[in-house]
Fold this sequence. Notes:
The complex is a heterotrimer of chains A (257), B (469) and C (420). Chain A is α/β, with parallel strands linked by helices. Chain A has helices at 46-54, 78-84, 101-109, 120-133, 151-165, 181-198, 235-243, 246-256; strands at residues 6-17, 20-31, 35-39, 60-68, 71-72, 86-89, 96-100, 144-145, 169-173, 201-205, 219-224, 227-232. Chain A has a domain at 3-91 and 169-256: P-loop containing nucleotide triphosphate hydrolases (Rossmann fold, 3-Layer(aba) Sandwich). Chain A has a six-stranded mixed sheet, sandwiched between helices. In chain A, helix 6 links the parallel strand 9 and strand 10. Chain B has 469 residues and is of the alpha/beta class. Chain B contains eleven helices and 25 strands. Chain B has helices spanning 33-42, 47-62, 99-108, 110-117, 136-140, 148-152, 158-164, 175-183, 416-424, 429-445, 450-464, and strands at 25-26, 84-85, 120-125, 128-134, 144-147, 188-192, 202-207, 214-215, 218-223, 228-236, 244-246, 249-254, 259-267, 272-275, 277-282, 287-294, 299-302, 305-308, 314-323, 328-337, 343-352, 357-366, 373-383, 389-398, 403-413. In chain B, a hairpin with a 2-residue loop joins strand 3 and strand 4 (128-134). In chain B, helix 1 packs antiparallel against helix 2. Chain C is of the alpha/beta class. Chain C has eight helices and 20 strands. In chain C, strands 3, 5, 7, 9, 11, 13, 15, 17 and 19 form a nine-stranded parallel sheet that branches. A nine-stranded mixed sheet of chain C has the order 4-6-8-10-12-14-16-18-20. Chain C has a two-stranded antiparallel ribbon with strand order 1-2. Chain C is globular and about 65 Å long. Chains in contact: A-C, B-C. The interface between B and C is large, with 61 and 60 residues.
Amino acid sequence: MADENILLNVAGLSAAVDEKVILHDVDLTVGAGETHVLMGPNGAGKSTLGHVVMGDPEYTVTGGKITFNGQDITDLSTDKRSHAGLFLSFQAPVEIPGVPVSSFLRAISAGRPGVGDMKGKQFRKHVKELAEELNMDPAYLDRELGVGFSGGEKKKLEMLQLLLLEPKLAFLDETDSGLDVDALSVVSRGMEVYRKRCNGTLVIITHNTRILEHVDVNRVHVLVKGRMTAEGDASMIADIDENGFEQFEQAAAAAAE
Amino acid sequence: MAKQRTEVADIDRSLYDFSYGDSTEKLEAGLTPEIVREISEKKDEPEWMLQHRLKSLEIYRNMPTSDWGPSIAGLDMDNIVTYVKPNTDQKSDWDSLPDDVKNTFDRLGIPEAERSYLAGVGAQYDSELVYHNMQDTASRMGIVYSGIEEALHDPQWEPLIREKFMTLIPPTDHKFAALHGAVWSGGSFVYVPKDTKLDFPLQSYFRLNAKGAGQFEHTLIIVEDGADLHFIEGCSAPKYNVANLHAGAVELFVGKNAHLRYSTIENWSKNMYNLNTKRSTCDEGGSIEWVSGSFGSHVGYLYPMSILAGRKSTCTFTGITFAGTGQNLDTGCKVVLAAPETSASIETKSISKGGGVSTFRSSVVATPKAENSACSVSCQSLMLDDHSRSDTIPAMDIRCKHVDIGHEATIGRIGDDKVFYLMSRGISEEEARTMIVNGFADPVSKELPLEYAVEMNNLIKLEMEGAIG
Amino acid sequence: MGADVLNNVNAMPAPTWHRLGMNETAVELPEGLSFAAQVEVEAAAELIGEAGAFDAAVAALQERVDAARAAGPADTRAILKAVDPDVDPADLDIPALSTYEHKAARQEMANNVAEAFECGMGEQATAWLAEAAGKGAATVFAPAAGKHGQATVRIAGVDGAANVAAIDVVAPAGATFDLTVSLDSPAAGSGVVGVVLRVFAGENAHVNVTSVHTLDETWMALDDTGIVCDEGAFVTVRHRMLGAGKSYTGLATDLRGDLSRVDVDTRYLAAGQDVRDFNYIVRHRGKKTRCNIDANGALMGESKKVLRGTIDLVRGCKGAEGTERETVLLVDERVENKTIPVILCDEDDVAGNHGATIGHVAADQLFYLKCRGLSQEAAEGLFATATLEETALAVEDETVRAGVGRLAGRLGIPYQEVEG
């Protein structure tokens, strides 16, 4: 990969929560327009990696560097990372009682080129179109954020934000979405539109391979016990499907020695 | 099968309800400047203390009684004897005490407790301390544990007492703080020097034996920077058919990074008006832990207060109140977050039964200086029948943006589903209910020294035992 | 023209330490107020009922209450003995009741619906509001049994005056009724805008009350409500206290009938030197009665707020459940927030819960919002925006929406208008 094509570069990243180290010396390089998959067994630290790249204050970065779009963002605040073009879809989006979805969407669009410049009416029309694209009932836009939403509805709202904000790179934390057919199809649809419309870059976090069936994957990364233990092309997906993660666990154990 | 309700028996207080005769010397009942002067004279106090008493009496006379708490109409101050001197001077071995006094404390198990797990004991009988003793190891560490009046007569401590006395609880605080300021007598003084940690607790026990009398002891504890102390306070009285009054005051000064745990099991008899005031202040990094059980008294007003004055100081409060027949217990706590990064955690339980009334009352105040402070309050009330009463009145006054204040409270009865579950496993209904109430009280009992936890569990068991159906 | 100061306003039933300054409040009225009585009522003519309908409904309920009492067992509790005027205060077997507990016991013995009726702001304020509205000038809404009706009452600020509406809603069995009240100040000036509302919700009736304050900071709002619920009645109250320099809101509900229920959903905003003062009281008297009080607010500038919420589980309300929750966002450093969620209980077979969360945006919510590009300030600002936009979405009334839009402009809060 040519250097100028690199969008995200994570180098030697270590992170801890309350003294407990969760990520050990992790490297990850993602080129613009590519689709990567981050796989690994439960508790490997996959979601953590997404959160740390996004700057979750829950975790302390104890080593390494995160470069995005040529800028060192390791110490950048989370909201600035978002404005720089990073996106993280949440496995379990929070509920914020009292805040209508429409108010929330308007607020997060403020100050962004394109959507931020739209007039009220134009903006509402745009949001409505995106909702229809995701088969989302526009009535949800008047409801309180996340309150009483089903898993599938929450997922739809995450995808709607992805398409609204059009980030340069999106981490999609889909660790559990494979369990829910409804959620699975929403995510697939969201990814497809995002890739097509924005030539988007994706890092899909999952341990379930069904979600990847209709996606052209460039690279696969395997995270086990907080360490990157393998990397390869899309053929790894079929291998993992068949043989699971046991094959990588030894390498992780050896690295931990 | 007809559903039967567990009738809960009145607490068996025979453990505390006995008297071996009356003390010899009493002042006239009632409250006049002459009586106050007489108390002061008997104690041969410094002039400033006499002035403090007279000023307090003036405040007392001009202050209204509270209009929000349990009625104290049954308390006729003209009939309360404010000073009762026991027929002995203070001793440092139990055997030197007169038989009636010695037998009283023996029955309460105090000498035995001293032998087995305490570093020092003070025992007050009516208005005066009759016993004070501390292990040599503790005195060698420089720890002072004595009667507060004794310390007041010691030129080494008099200036410090003068500096601190009734500064946390000024006589203007409320009517009974003023009364305390006027007629206080007895109580303990504790001084723990810098970086000194005492491994075993000190205990003061207050016994009010005289009928129709008041007890007004003053406890002053100073824990210097980096020091650590566990202090236990016990109290009881035999039951009379006339009102007795307890209006003590406890002032606790916790230094930088110092730690003080203050445990109380209050088990006054049911003719007692307990209008006690307790207050602490913590310097930077200091911590105060209150463990408070209120079981006795006809009327109780008790809200230990923690002033978190230093950065990163902390407070935990664990309390239980059990109000039975004829009792109206208004208890709770007060917290002031007055410095950055302070934290307070309050957990209380209250139980009402047999027509008793229990009120949880609290105040949490965060001043503008309390940035990044946190306070959580959790209070649970259990109603054991439908002719009792339980109120929860928690006030919060928050004037600082960067704080996290959480408050949760629930009220209800023992769930039939829980009883059914336990019965389906072969446990009798009575046993099941006792088990559930003990479980309810567990967060408090596990904070108590073992001997006290056993005592508390016994009190609850006695309450729960007896007629079912 | 009446008193200059209204005392003992929004008093909690069971008071606590006076030095906290939460027990009640005194309302200083502007000097030289005239009474305007300029109220705009929008309702179908057949909905207008007769004066006295409220008292007649209460009297009819009283007959059934008395019959039920006569059929029940006598009450022999020690608490009631304490109320006996001949009781010896030195009797140690009788609990020494506080003034409030004494009053509660007397009220239980009297069992009188009309006597126990209260509006949340308290006697003096309620009487003053009634006087300001004009004697006998109450608008009475009385939908027919089993029928649906709706009405909107708009009360706009009149410079130098107290403009007050007195409203009675008497919903007979099975009726549903929606009432929207708007307290607004489209024109400049100062004065008092108020409403005193009495609601009688009959058997299985369903009454929805929405009250929105969008006044400018030169105005004072007084919003006083008292509700009586018969069996199975369900009343929802939406309070949107967004504007006014000072607003005082009192709401008292008597859940007298079995299975009756009240839900209170409150949102408030305060900025600058604003004062928001609330007193909510719900008395559970009937069996299996329910209440949910849910309040959310954001305090900005140097505003001051006190919210008293009392759930009173009166003996006999077997199976009742009362829940109360407040979430307060403190946006600026100099705000003062007072919260006092009280549960009073003399019944065992009940569930009472209350909770309060006070401070800044919760950590998980804040991280989520930051992930979407909002700074800390923007995240806090979102809550103010959301409070306004939610009101405009929820209340389909052009006066209200215009008022909310004007308020947003005055406070400088980002706001997108709702399509009409």
